[in-house]
Amino acid sequence: QLSGKWFLVGMASRCSYLAEHSHQLEATTVTVTVLDGQSLAISTFRKLDRMCWEIRQHYLPAQAPGRFLLKGEGDCSKVDVAVGEADPSSFVILYYQKGRSISVKLYGRSSLVSDAVVDKFEQRVKAVGLSEDVIYYFPTYGGWRTALGETRV
Known about the structure:
Layout: E1 4-12, H1 16-21, E2 28-34, E3 40-48, E4 51-61, E5 67-70, E6 79-87, E7 91-98, E8 101-108, H2 115-127, E9 135-137
């Protein structure tokens, strides 16, 4: 159900790098492929310094449905990924947890999602103890969403 193309619409994180560079956010697309009925191949495309970059990741199935494990280099770099809420035809909200740090991402089938979906995302962000000042909305290819989300083009 998660297969196909997605747009990164918003992200909530206490990441200091994200806070310092939020003015440089670029439209980001993700392609999800289900490999063996369980694990996911994630291909992220984004612009950086006027070049397109592809980042490939492999999400391994975890013990419960809707949960995955993203392994990086070394033992300390594993990230638990969980589907918080999804309507595979329009949006998915994912939680990423590494140690005690958590972030929440909102993906849409299009770069624009409804206000109701944005509200769900913001509620989920608050539910994990993150505040609105760490929510970042990504620019779209045809318009710009403000940092606080008041203008949804």
